Amino acid sequence: MSLIQRRGLLAAGLALPALGARAQATQMTAAVYPGGWDEALRAVLAPRLLQQHNVTVAFDPLFAVDQIAKARAARGTPPFDVFVLDPGPRVSGMDLGLFETFDPARLPSRGVLPAGYADNVGAAVAAQVVGIAYNPQKVPKPAGWRDLFRPEYASKLGLTGFGTTFGTISLIEMAKALGGSETNMDPLFAELRRIRPSVAAVAQPAAMPGLFQQGQIDVMYTNTYTVTLLRSRGVPIAFAVPESGAAAFVTTMHIAKNSRNIAAAYQYIDAMISTPVQTALSLDPYFFVPVNKEVTPGADVPMRSISEITNFVTHDWTRINPLRAGWISRFNREMAG
To answer: On the CB side of 248, how many CA atoms lie within 13 Å of its CA?
Structure first.
């Protein structure tokens, strides 16, 4: 789809009407991931919400773990009306009782979601598919996670730790390929220590795309979003599905316990899953993986419908969460320097 076509879509489905005769808008607050999510939801979701429901939204840019920490510190007075979370923090929020009971029947668009994607906790709003990104001009396509520990890949590899969901599940998949398990990282850490002197970079997750773009690394573990974004900027990059399968997870939205804007919060989540918003978010420059069954994922996503996500590798965060802080500390300690 061309840029002109995309602008036409946005103009048709998301344009703001004249506001002269509009009544006073309802105001709400939503947590949003910093960076691409923040930009996308301000540009696409907020106008739709105002157009359809006369609701304005103030965004609070916070990573998932910071949302949980902020809500927990607020002691029953929610700092925002809607969370957006990946699987690990979602489980933590459930355990801490931070969410209102969710009623999927209050989402007019719920029929566009696969079965089970809206329940009494919240609703899925986007997906991520995680695998190996590589520069096809510099290295051959890796077959799987074990390849990253071979000299020809390790010397071009960018390593990042357990601080993100994509980092955590990638490292878990490496551990499994090396004889470990979802809860046993010892084989992984042994191999990481072995290759540490030769790896191209150990850095924070946000630094990885820049290092790849600059040619300082030629291999990294990431999601399809990052691959598509870099390719749109002219970077030579490809996505490899590991032989054990790509990993996938969904990002969900939840209404904060004691929210004073529950009706608006449902309208916000419903707008997020609607076909016009999911379509716009799937396109350049946002490249979201849609959960809406009516929207086809982008070319870099190894599925043609969200219904195929059941074919991907998933993880049990009730087992991972209690161990994750220890893994983060261990990675930082053993891989520093």
So the answer is: 23
